[in-house]
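Lecture notes, continued. The same structure-token format from the folding unit now serves as the input rather than the output. Read the line below as a description of shape only.
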């Protein structure tokens, strides 16, 4: 029998204090700085002539795909019932979720239970009002709070965990020895949002989380897009977990940069919120948009004002449009014009308290810039994250921070909730399964575990216990 050989990382330093604005140039108001000369050399080292034909194909296919998204609008976002999760997603549902890279799951958490979480969050923030931080300052709507009772209850809720197992099951590992368990979700602590009607401050435009320049700069992260960069973009598999396990998404130790393998970002609704009411927007073109974004730094308009057809190879400049050191990847009509984001960013369908939305980690998404609704637009950010050795190492530090009331390790540091009253604890998790996902119970080895899965579970338990 194989033995665990876990390598436990040295103690993590807390990141700088800040808010969600720390990770986006558009929120922080920072100027766009030119990249160092080494980024031109990076482009030259990646380049191969097959990318010219790939670029032409991707641009041509975008002409058709963008029209389809614009025509269907919100209706293009796949929607399933929680009963579908319980009974098993159909082949057609799986195909559409994989194609679009996003899914709305209705039901699962009773409405009154979700509303109770929101009320608990409000009371917690009010009780500790003198210490609460967030964005924007003076009228916080995105709270730097991670360790509340309500968040603990939600993260460990059986319906959320069952949904996460189902969605993680849409991924696979091309390497059968990959050390991960896609049927073992763990918790990745994040913030919550209570956005008030009329808000225009939380203007988070089209972006992709998980770093920016790292996608090209880190060899392991770049391998996740190897088919695209080899001129075989149609062979790209967005749901292959194997190359992502060692990807370094945070080369610069920046606040709010995710350092774990997080296949699905997500949130759970705490309000009745529809299009135009400060909700999520997505570009449901997962594979095609990813190919375009990865190829974009290698091409530029021939001249200022050139048409979308008149582009040439660009290996001399250091430009990686929308990419900044220690920031997330941002996209716009100016930086990525062929995506036609003004037409292809569609709002999520109306959600009710307790509904869940998940989107692929490579999907372009945004938040509506103006909340035109009459009620608050509120969510708990809760993603679907599997057990891997690296993720278990992060979970160990996250558990320590939770015990001490500190911000989650990937997020802006400081004293956090260490002096807050009525903080959450492991006793608020939903049973043994709930305590397990937040790192307080050993992971169980399934009888039918693959060799890689078994090794991941053994090493995770060694790291955590």
């Amino acid at each position: 029998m194989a033995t665990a050989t876990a390598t436990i990382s040295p103690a993590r330093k807390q990141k700088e204090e800040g808010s969600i604005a720390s990770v986006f140039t558009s929120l922080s108001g920072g100027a766009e700085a030119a990249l160092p000369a080494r980024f031109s050399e990076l482009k030259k080292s990646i380049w191969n002539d097959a990318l010219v034909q790939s670029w032409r194909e991707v641009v041509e296919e975008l002409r058709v795909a963008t029209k389809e998204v614009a025509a269907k609008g919100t209706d293009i976002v796949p929607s399933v019932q929680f009963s579908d999760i319980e009974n098993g997603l159909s082949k057609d549902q799986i195909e559409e979720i994989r194609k679009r890279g996003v899914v709305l799951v209705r039901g699962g958490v009773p409405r009154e239970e979700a509303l109770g979480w929101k009320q608990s969050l409000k009371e917690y923030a009010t009780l500790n009002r003198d210490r609460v931080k967030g964005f924007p300052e003076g009228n916080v709507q995105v709270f730097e709070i991670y360790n509340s009772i309500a968040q603990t209850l939600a993260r460990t809720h059986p319906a959320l965990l069952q949904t996460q197992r189902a969605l993680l099951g849409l991924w696979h590992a091309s390497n059968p020895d990959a050390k991960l368990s896609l049927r073992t979700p763990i918790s990745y602590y994040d913030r919550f949002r209570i956005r008030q009607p009329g808000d225009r401050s939380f203007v988070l435009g089209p972006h992709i989380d998980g770093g920016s320049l790292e996608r090209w700069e880190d060899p392991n992260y770049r391998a996740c897009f190897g088919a695209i960069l080899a001129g075989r973009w149609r062979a790209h598999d967005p749901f292959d977990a194997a190359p992502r396990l060692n990807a370094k998404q945070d080369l610069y130790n920046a606040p709010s940069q995710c350092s774990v393998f997080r296949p699905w970002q997500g949130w759970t609704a705490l309000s009745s919120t529809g299009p135009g009411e400060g909700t999520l927007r997505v570009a449901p073109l997962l594979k095609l948009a990813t190919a375009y974004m990865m190829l974009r730094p290698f091409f530029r308009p021939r001249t200022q004002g050139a048409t979308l057809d008149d582009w040439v190879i660009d290996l001399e400049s250091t430009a990686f449009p929308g990419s900044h050191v220690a920031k997330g990847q941002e996209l716009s009509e100016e930086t990525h014009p062929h995506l036609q984001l003004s037409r292809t960013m569609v709002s999520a369908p109306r959600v009710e308290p307790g509904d869940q939305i998940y989107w692929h980690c490579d999907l372009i998404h945004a938040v509506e810039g103006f909340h035109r609704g009459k009620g608050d637009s509120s969510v708990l950010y809760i993603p679907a994250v599997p057990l891997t050795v690296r993720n278990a190492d992060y979970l160990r530090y996250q558990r320590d921070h939770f015990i001490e009331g500190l911000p989650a390790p990937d997020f802006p540091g400081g004293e956090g909730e260490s002096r807050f009253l009525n903080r959450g604890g492991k006793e608020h998790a939903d049973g043994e399964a709930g305590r397990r996902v937040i790192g307080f119970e050993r992971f169980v080895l399934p009888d039918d575990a693959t060799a890689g899965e078994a090794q991941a579970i053994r090493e995770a338990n060694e790291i955590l216990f």
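Point for the exam: The two ends are 20 Å apart (CA to CA).
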